[in-house]
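USER: Fancy drafting a protein?

ASSISTANT:
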Amino acid sequence: MNSKFFSLDDEKQIKILNAAIKAYVQKGYDHASTNEIVKEAGISKGLLFHYFKNKKTLYLFLFDHCVEVVMEDFYKKTVMEEPDFFKRLHDMTLIKIELLQTYPDIFRFFEKVMLEESEQIRSDFQSRIKEFTASSSTWLFDGIDHSRFRDDLDLPKAIKSMMWTFQGLSEEYLMKAKLKQQELDYDKVFAESKAYIEMFKQAFYK
């Protein structure tokens, strides 16, 4: 993380981060302007580039910071002592709904990140998202009661099928929202996710 940036007072940090989120959400990476960001934040361009080398550095920092903020809250709310995998998955879905209501601007930014087509940053985010997906899936299955799954089940393949389903579901809804130029309908996403959770539970549990 950027220690120089965090030496700023909290109010100025928030203004810069909110201005950057607004610009990137409205314009996307390629068309977002640092001139607009500094104007919205009420700072000089020189000050922005004192803390961030360029637009790409700011964008990557913003993504990492937003992930850290949301996931810190997510981990605090998640009960990892729950041994029932599908109960844990259901509870996590409810927590995501709560976080969406708490951080609506951050989630809109995440949507833009997932659909970002700029070649300047696409590879950076592909590696970040791949790393995050791997670590979160490991954490998701930590400490679950494997005895509840069917004895004849190939558990690693079952886990992969579930992860691919939820990943594909997210991508499908993101693409639909992009094509229709609408905001993502989270109510439908979560409703369908819960339906898949119940389906997998019936298929994979004894």
Q: What stands out?
A: The mean pLDDT is 86. The chain has one domain: 59-204. The longest helix spans residues 155-180. Residues 59-204 form one domain.
